[in-house]
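Thread: "does anyone have the structure for this chain?"

Original post by V.I.:
We have the sequence but no experimental structure in hand. Need at least a predicted one for the grant figures.
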Amino acid sequence: MSLAVDSWLQLAGFAELRELFRAHDIDAALLPDLTDADLKAIGIASLGQRKKLLAAITNLASVPASATAPIDTAPPTGRARLDRSPATSRNSGCYASAGVRQWRARVSSCY
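Reply from O.Q.:
Generated one for you, tokens below.
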């Protein structure tokens, strides 16, 4: 079983089924084709759990691929670094209000 299915089962609240899916070689390509009978055949006896799992699989199919892509947790570098200007820092007073005015001016110039 792929790491993606393993992680998805964990996130969807079906962590206890990870070993079962591994034992039956169920990967991401097979998920959309699973039926209630398939889930029963691999040993998921609870009707409620099968229904919940099938609903979660259906919802997974409707989520865009970009939403399920791994999240990059590396710190930003180069141009992707966070702006450390006074407007985005925790400074208060005129720095913060000047930053808001500048931001509004930039946004309004785009329209």
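V.I.: this helps a lot. The chain has two domains: 3-63, 84-109.
O.Q.: and The domain at 3-63 is CATH 1.10.150.50 (DNA polymerase; domain 1).
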